[in-house]
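User: quick one, sequence for these tokens?
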């Protein structure tokens, strides 16, 4: 039988790589343009098919994880996304660039439905492991721009894709050698602790659907809009782009810490007990942020990020707690397909709302949307707690 801690360590590394790989282009495109003789606005659309595949592909990859093998799918993820990153480093034409970025998106779509389901299968304390896994994903987001910038400056943009690609393939080789064909028999699973009455399952599904759409849309909108919001509203503190980036990164650190904390709470209390008070955070903080500047805005932004990141952990735990082992990858596939689709729509929504009335209109609109998270938490049924197998 596989060592649960070893499997979870590889899956956490996969979460880091997944988000890191998807964001390399966003950082590298600034220096790719002059090298390829193309403007920023001309290059950026080549990333779109990859982001579409990142969400849409999860339906197929989740099904394969359940029906075939999660271990084999994760091996394909490591090797495939590593080779795709290397391929971007060798492109010569825009068409080749689009194809290589599409390949990154396709292989990246494996991780969330398959990797998250593996976390649930091997975790003996589900909340804690979900929280830690979320932290690793956030580290991938936070470090991608920094590492890409450093490698791009000293070695060139091509090596910004090639170096992490090689490292990822080496991790895949280690995974193949150290994680044998999946065998979860005899391992205790925290997911088996929580159940709800059969007649209440519709409430779980409805709650999850509502909160995933509301939170995924808001989460992506906040991550897209925060740098621009800080640039406009922190002018009295600093006009330095570097310092603004540091401030934004520090705000996101609170989000990562919240994911870990919420994960620990989910091990001690029922999901509804944690989700209900958490659901009240986002709407008031978003509403307040619309009229604040400088230090008060930074403090309120910390509250927004903590609320959004905490909700992501609750959403993942909800699927893990209430779905059976044989359906879990497919359940996560649907959850992430809906979430990533809503997140994709949020970019256009942010632009439109900003045109209508700047950040005041945008933040008020998303505050109203987050009232749905409160409704979703209220809908959740009480859990029927069962003893954890020894």
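Assistant:
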């Amino acid at each position: 039988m596989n060592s649960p801690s070893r499997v979870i360590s590889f899956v956490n590394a996969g979460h880091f790589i997944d988000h890191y790989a998807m964001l390399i282009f966003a950082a590298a495109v600034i220096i790719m343009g002059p090298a390829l003789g193309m403007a920023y606005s001309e290059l950026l659309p080549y990333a779109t098919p990859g982001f579409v595949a990142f969400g849409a592909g999860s339906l197929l990859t989740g099904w394969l994880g359940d029906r075939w093998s999660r271990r084999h799918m994760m091996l394909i993820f490591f090797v495939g996304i590593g080779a795709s990153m290397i391929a971007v480093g060798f492109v010569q034409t825009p068409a080749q660039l689009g194809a290589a970025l599409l390949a990154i998106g396709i292989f990246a779509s494996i991780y969330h439905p398959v990797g998250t389901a593996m976390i649930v299968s091997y975790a003996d304390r589900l909340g804690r492991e979900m929280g830690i896994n979320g932290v690793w994903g956030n580290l991938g987001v936070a470090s991608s721009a920094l590492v890409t910038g450093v490698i791009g400056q000293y070695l060139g943009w091509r090596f910004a894709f090639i170096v992490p690609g090689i490292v990822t393939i080496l991790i895949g080789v280690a995974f193949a050698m150290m994680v044998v064909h999946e065998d979860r028999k005899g391992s205790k699973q925290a997911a088996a602790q929580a159940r709800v009455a059969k007649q209440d399952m519709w409430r779980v599904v409805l709650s999850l659907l509502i909160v995933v759409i509301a939170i995924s849309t808001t989460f992506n909108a906040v991550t897209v809009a925060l740098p621009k919001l800080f640039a406009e509203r922190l002018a009295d503190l600093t006009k330095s782009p570097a310092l603004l980036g540091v401030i934004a990164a520090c705000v996101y650190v609170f989000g990562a810490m919240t994911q870990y904390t919420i994960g620990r709470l989910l091990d001690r209390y029922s999901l509804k007990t944690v989700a209900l008070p958490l659901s009240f955070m986002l709407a008031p903080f978003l509403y307040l942020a619309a009229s604040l500047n400088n230090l008060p805005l930074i403090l309120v932004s910390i509250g927004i990020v903590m609320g959004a990141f905490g909700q992501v952990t609750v959403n993942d735990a909800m699927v893990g707690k209430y779905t059976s082992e044989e359906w879990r990858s497919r359940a996560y596939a649907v959850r992430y397909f809906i979430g990533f689709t809503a997140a994709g729509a949020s970019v256009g929504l942010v632009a439109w709302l900003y045109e209508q009335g700047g950040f005041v209109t945008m933040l008020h609109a998303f505050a109203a949307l987050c009232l749905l998270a409160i409704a979703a938490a209220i809908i959740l049924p009480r859990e029927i707690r069962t003893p954890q197998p020894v």
